[in-house]
Write a structure and sequence with these properties.
The chain is of the alpha/beta class. The chain has three domains: 1-30, no CATH class; 42-148 and 278-306, Rossmann fold; 149-274, Response regulator (Rossmann fold). It is built from eleven helices and twelve strands. The strands form two sheets. Strands 2-1-3-4-5-11 form a six-stranded parallel beta sheet, with helices on both faces. Strands 7-6-8-9-10-12 form a six-stranded mixed beta sheet, sandwiched between helices. α10 links the parallel β8 and β9 (253-258). α4 (58-73) crosses α11 and α7 (149-162) packs across α8 (179-188). It is elongated.
């Protein structure tokens, strides 16, 4: 039986087909645990974010969908780890890797330091693919995927200034994020200042974006345009604008980042910087499976580009 299922051993094609047909008739399903004992493979890949719950974020959810679609085509399953503390003794990911319960790990890197953990965990049987800054590209059995975020930020500055906006706000995710610095530098090239009072660090959710936008909209001389670090925040800003009776884009322009599926379905559709989250997930899955096949290959680095998608949430600055 095992030779028939594995395709190994001295079994003729005719005999193998006869046995497989009989198995289908009987509804036989191979035991995956028994197969793992024989092959040493679980055919499971783990997906982990170092600092966020994946299912709470629109971009990360689309990334996970891309991972799963590619793994499914290759006969692999996806194991999602929503406990993001790698330095915790009860971290599921640590247990999965050390017990060989997974054949690889796709790690979405946030802001927590993870280099030493990856250095200890990545091995020929359990390679890692990291999405984020390629600071671990020198480690063995590790592949890296990164995105040129700064280019998209500069495109947003170009767009808003070209539309005549001079009072511009920014809604961010964290104090140590580089986006506000990049955005300020891009605006300064045109002689436009990003004032501190127009920068709000909100968080990650739609509700946090709405609260941040309400703060910006209700202050004296509010911004005529807002750039939000994530589409979730930008969508919240759009809801807040509507609740305050502000017309988008006639009275305020709003730009997001990521181009999650919901962005194009907003009213008006959201202008945003597109990151192909689904494609990133697909590439991460392809890379981790390639590392499984050839763990001694040099570290791979794959760079994705962003692109500005102009929709109807941006328009000329209102006359003041």
């Amino acid at each position: 039986m095992s030779h028939v299922l594995s395709g190994r051993g001295r079994v003729s094609a005719k005999t193998r087909e006869m046995v497989l047909r009989r198995m289908r008739e009987l509804g036989y399903i191979p035991n995956p645990h028994a197969q793992q004992l024989v092959t040493g493979q679980s055919h499971i890949i783990a997906l982990h974010h170092t600092d966020q719950e994946i299912l709470s974020d629109l971009f990360l959810t689309d990334f996970a969908r891309g991972v799963q679609s590619t793994l499914h085509m290759h006969g692999y399953g996806l194991l999602l780890d929503n406990v993001f503390r790698l330095d915790s003794a009860d971290s599921p990911l640590l247990r999965w890797v050390r017990s060989a319960a997974v054949d690889g790990v796709i790690l979405i890197k946030g802001w927590s330091p993870v280099r030493e953990h990856i250095k200890q965990l990545a091995n020929p049987a359990t390679p890692f693919v990291i999405y984020g800054a390629p600071t671990e590209a020198d480690l063995p059995y590790v592949g890296c995927i990164t995105t040129d975020m700064k280019h998209g930020v500069e495109e947003v500055a170009d767009l808003l200034v070209s539309l005549g906006h001079r009072r511009i706000g920014f809604i961010g995710i964290r104090e140590d994020d580089l986006f506000p610095t990049w955005f300020r530098e891009a605006l300064q090239k045109y002689g436009v200042s990003l004032e501190e009072r127009n920068i709000v660090t909100a968080g990650f959710t739609v509700a946090e974006g709405a609260a941040a936008a309400r703060h910006l909209f209700t202050q004296p001389n509010p911004p005529t345009a807002i750039f939000a670090r994530k589409d979730d925040l930008a969508i919240g800003a759009m809801f807040s604008a509507v609740s305050l009776g502000l017309r988008v884009p006639e009275q305020v322009s709003i730009v997001g980042h990521d181009d999650v599926p919901m962005a194009s379905m907003m009213e008006p559709p959201l202008t945003t910087v597109r990151i192909d989250a689904f494609g990133l997930g697909q590439k991460a899955a392809e890379m981790v499976l390639a590392l499984r096949r050839s763990p001694v290959e040099p570290t791979q680095i794959c760079r994705f580009q962003t692109s500005l998608v102009i929709r109807k949430s941006t328009g000329p600055a209102p006359r003041l």
